[in-house]
Specification:
- The structure is a homodimer.
- The first copy, chain A, is an alpha/beta fold.
- The first copy, chain A, has 2 domains: about 140 residues, Nucleotidyltransferase, domain 5 (2-Layer Sandwich), CATH 3.30.420.40; about 170 residues, Nucleotidyltransferase, domain 5 (2-Layer Sandwich), CATH 3.30.420.
- The first copy, chain A, contains 10 helices and 12 strands.
- Chain A has a 5-stranded mixed beta sheet, sandwiched between helices. A 5-stranded mixed beta sheet of chain A has the order 10-9-8-11-12, sandwiched between helices.
- Chain A is globular, with a radius of gyration of 20 Å.
- Chains A and B meet through strand 9 and helix 8 of A and strand 9 and helix 8 of B.
Chain lengths: ~325, ~325
Amino acid sequence: MESGNSQFFVGIDIGGTKIQVVIADRHGAIHGEARKKHKGAVDFEWVVGRSVAAVDAALDKAKLGRKEISALGIGAPSPILPDGTAVHAPNLGWQNVPLVATFAQELGWPTYAANDCDAGTFGEHRFGAGQAAQTVVGLFMGTGIGGGLVRNGEILAGDNYQGAEFGHTKVQVGGQRCGCGARGCLEAYASKLGIASFVAHQVNCEGRETMLTELCDGDYRSLRSSALAKAYRATDAVAVAAIDQAADYLGIGVANAITLLAPSVIVLGGGVIEALGSLLLNRVVSAAEQASWPPGSFADTSIRLAKLGDHAVALGAAAWAIQRGQF
Amino acid sequence: MESGNSQFFVGIDIGGTKIQVVIADRHGAIHGEARKKHKGAVDFEWVVGRSVAAVDAALDKAKLGRKEISALGIGAPSPILPDGTAVHAPNLGWQNVPLVATFAQELGWPTYAANDCDAGTFGEHRFGAGQAAQTVVGLFMGTGIGGGLVRNGEILAGDNYQGAEFGHTKVQVGGQRCGCGARGCLEAYASKLGIASFVAHQVNCEGRETMLTELCDGDYRSLRSSALAKAYRATDAVAVAAIDQAADYLGIGVANAITLLAPSVIVLGGGVIEALGSLLLNRVVSAAEQASWPPGSFADTSIRLAKLGDHAVALGAAAWAIQRGQF
């Protein structure tokens, strides 16, 4: 049933430090939005309450009432089972919460949910850099490395709905320790945490100096993407080396995705890419080209910067609701 | 249309050194087979002729005539396009040969083709170790490392049909040189070629001795799986170290497959596994468990030895013909 712009959908992005809500139409235009910050490790009921408040604020901005909404989509940092359970969200401290059932009861709309990186990839597929592609891989370079895989309009997260964890594939066996406890994960090199540990090593073990030290008060794990961008643009040698290494490893992640999945489009997003993407894209592409196989296959994949910025998850969640509910 | 055992199908496995034909029914029972050796880098017309001769020999053994065959499936060491073109088969020296069209004209049967590792994975999914699983990954440890991915009864090889190249994903950036020219590929460690280069290094650079030297006349790249098995069972120290390293890396490949694709079943096959699989399985599983993510996800994947042995590709090709032609 095509009904143009007359239907509206709500997308909620439940992140590790914020809740973001958009009111979107089926073309991905945003008619209202709201954002609430939080401090992580917050209990589920509290998040539901804050989310509902944010939804009402976004509806106000869109000059719409709850009755004018056709469906709700939620992106959350957890694997999502088909029954709508969020299995485990380490950043929020959740285990097996009834995500979809609770929101459906609270707001009364048909409700669907997806993992946040899957939703972000789906959003880019539907409204952003991955439109009309059969297979889209999303790689999100932020504090960690998130990934998503969409094929033929379907989110593929494996038979237990816990796959597409690109950040924890091993690219350097026995290498750098990752936050997950293992060694050699892509995330240990290509994320903000990887950049932080490179910088800390340069300063603390090699005695080098960098403007990043002042920009983060010596707490490299708290480095913001904007600080990285500032130091990179200023050609601070340590920052450039750290970020270039991360870009090279992101290229390895891109290459492995091409070698295994041969997607038509790989979308690069996340905070570091939003701050630095246009400066890093050539380097990532070049590393990916060297490392992908078979040689002719590389040219069949377009590697693009994300277009939806930090709306990707909320818009993708709304798009997922439209798709799943056949609105 | 279900017609029990009354229909017969031909599967051809065109390998780098042999052509193998099976006559199978829809349950995967083999009613006749034939095998022809060749020396690699053989031209396409020659392979077609030898294959047709092998088909007739297998039909003779099955006491069947050409008219009693419903369809033909072919597995070949090349990406296969939807129109049946084999894009490039480096082991055979082929570029863009009309594989399906030529065989269809030659034998007159409905004809379908798949990449050999995809066909092998599909065969294990249909008749072997991966039955009834939604997603099956096949990893074949032979001279190189081949891979295949089957989901919902469909072969997934990416948008350009050239993906599922598990052997050339990078697991050790900057590491050992692979036959493909790049460094750090899974294949550079976990294949017979990886074992050969480990052994050569131990002997030539570390001055160690091993019974493998005599078993291959000092040409480690020609080591046969049976020789590896003999030395491993004899607890030859160099052979054990080389093969254990390969098993550990194969476990990394398994872990990355779980982390990305979360399949219900991963089937391990290929010559080295046929010769040594039951001795190596625990080691591969243990390496995979340590390296896969998220932690709970590992238990959802069953890691199994292949069941179809060296019939996997030919049987898988026949099964693919049954599936694609809806017989």
